[in-house]
Amino acid sequence: MRKLNFSEIKAFQEDQLSFVQRMTEDLGGVAHVNMMGINLFFISEPAVIREVLIHCGDKLHRDPFTSRVFSRFMGNGVFMAEGDDWRRQRKLVQPAFHATRIRDYTEIIANATDQMVNSWQPGQIVIIDEVLTQLTLRIIAKTMFDVDLVDDVARIGLWMKEILTVGEAQLKMPILPPQWLPTPGNRRQQAALRAVKSHLRQIIAQRAATGEDRGDLLSMLLNARDEEGDPMPEDQLLDECVTLFVAGHETTAAALTWTWYLLAQHPHVMAQLRAELDGVLGERQISFADLNQLPYLEAVVKETLRLYPPAFGFGRQVMRPFDALGYHFPRKAVLLFSSYATHRRPDLWSEPEAFRPERFLDTDNSPDRYTYFPFGVGSRICLGNMFAMLEAQVILASMLQRIELTRVDHDPVVMDTLITLRPRDSLRMQVSMPQLA
Predict the structure, then answer these.
(1) Reduced to 3 states, what is the DSSP secondary structure of residue 372?
(2) How many helices (H) and strands (E) does the chain have?
(3) CB atoms within 10 A of CB 162
(4) pLDDT, tens digit (0-9, with 9 covering 90-100), for 383-431
(5) How many domains does the chain have?
(6) Residue 16 lies in a domain
(7) Which of 4, 37, 95, 116 is 20 to 30 A distant from 256 in Cα terms?
(8) Per the domain annotation, does 145 fall within a domain?
(9) Could you list the residue range(s) of the whole structural domain that residue 246 is in?
(10) Integer Cα distance of 171 and 419 in angstroms
(11) In a domain, 22, yes or no
C-alpha cells in the first residue's frame, strides 16, 4: 500500500482523471493507496471489476464521499437507497425503462429535438451544453411524467443547474458543512430544490386528482402499494421524481455535448455519419425500427462514451471484508472504479486516445462489458442505460438531418470532473445548414 503525500492528495483533488491514470500506470489495475488514513483502491482491471462487482456486490454500499453530497438533493431515491429499500424501489422504477416501453419514446424524443432545431437560424450561436440540457429536461419530463415543460424548461433548468453546481463544489470540499448550516451554497441549493419539488408537487397533485393511469413512471409510483396496502409517502415519491429528473437528463446532455465537440474536430466522421443517415432516413423522421440500420450512429455514440463517459467513475465502500483474485479488501475500504481510466488503457485498447467509432463496428473484437462500462457494472448498473442510448442516437440523428454545428472558440477544452464529466467552459457553436452531397 502506498501512502499519498500532500502534493499527491492535492493532485487528486485538482485533477482526478489524470491522477487515477498515473496511479494505474505506476501501480497497475488495482492501485492500493492510503489517503489521510482512508484505504483507497483505484480499480481499472477488468477481471477484478467483474469479480468485485458481480460476485461480491452484496458486501458493498455506495461510497461515503458521493453519498453525503447526492443524498442532499436525491434523498432516499433509488439512486441512493441501499439494501431492501433499493431492491423495492428499483423494482418499481425498472418497468419504465423496459425495452418494449422505451421504443414508444422515440417519437417524443424526435419531436422535441425537431422543435428545438427548427427554432434556430443559420449563423446563430448556441451554447450547446445549455440547449442540450434544456432538451433532455423536456424529454425526461414528457416520457416519465407526461408533462411538457416547453414554457418552464429554462426556469427549471436554472434550478437544476444551481442544485448541481453547489453539489459539484461540495464534492471537492474536504470537510462538508452540515446541511442545516446556512452557508451561501446550502441556501442556494435548498432554495432551488424547494422550487423543483414545488413544481413536481403540482404535477403529482394534478395527476392524483384525475386518478388517470397513463402508463408512465408517475402513474406507476402513484399506484404503488406496500405490503400493508399503503401508497408511497409523498417525501419518498418526491425523492424518486427528483432522482429521475437529475439522472435522467444530465448524463445524456453531457454525452451529446462531447459528441458535438468530437464531430467538430473530425469532419470525416461527421460526413460518414451524415451519409448513413441520408441513405436510411432521407428527410423523414427517425423511428425505432431505423436504429438497427444505423450502426455507425450507434458506434459514434459508443466511442464518445468511451472517451468521455459522463459517469466517469463511481465508488463503493466495503461493508464486509472479502478477498477477490488475490486481493484483500478490508472493511471500510473505499473502492473507486474509473471507467475513464479503463477506457483509455493502452493494453486494452488500440490507439486509446483516438476518436475511432469504427472500433465498435468490429464485432469480432468488440470490448467486453468489464473493459467498457460507461453505465456502470453489476446489480447497480444504470437502470436507464437503454433509454440513454436511444435518446442520444435519436437526438443526434434528428439534429444532423437539419443542421451542422461548428465551434466558435478554438481554445483547448478542459474537462471538469464534477457531477458528470463536462467541459469546464461553455461550448459555443455556430449553426449552419448541412451541405448536400
Answers:
(1) coil
(2) 16, 13
(3) 19
(4) 889 999 999 999 999 999 999 999 998 888 988 877 889 998 889 999 9
(5) 1
(6) no
(7) 95
(8) yes
(9) 44-432
(10) 8
(11) no
